[in-house]
Amino acid sequence: QVQLVESGGGLMQAGGSLRLSCVISGRASTVYNMAWWRQAPGKEREIVAAIRRSSETTYYPDSKKGRFAISIDNAKNTVYLQMDSLEPEDTAVYYCAAQFSPWSQYNSWGQGTQVTVSS
Question: Could you tell me if 79 and 34 are in contact, meaning their C-beta atoms sit under 8 angstroms apart?
Fold first, then answer.
């Protein structure tokens, strides 16, 4: 249905900022929600932020409010994740994912982009 390609990861020092991008190709109009997830070594994958494609309504878990901001440019079919005040605990592989209805799982995933934050 869609293909997702992330970019923007890298090595950062604590306190810095980074913006990740995710380009949606294919049937982008069928996407209901987009989200950023992350998986740190030895930990389960967790959601970082989500955005409804049509209304641009955003969702953040309580633990992620304040330092992360998700946005979407529907004209460019691109989703962004702005990360500020980075901490070493933010080190993880970051994935973007697509959900196609309110009742479905996130079932289209990108390949991930590595973010490493040094102290």
Answer: yes
The Cα 67–Cα 18 span in angstroms is 11
Tell me which DSSP letter residue 76 carries: T
Taking alpha carbons only, the member of 77, 28, 68 closest to residue 50 is 68
Using alpha carbons, select from 53, 17, 19 the residue that is nearest to residue 35.
53
Q: CA-to-CA distance for 99 and 30, rounded, in angstroms?
A: 9
What pLDDT, in 10s, does the model give residues 53-103? 999 999 999 877 789 999 999 999 999 999 999 999 999 999 999 999 999
Question: Chain-centre distance of CA 39, in angstroms?
Answer: 11
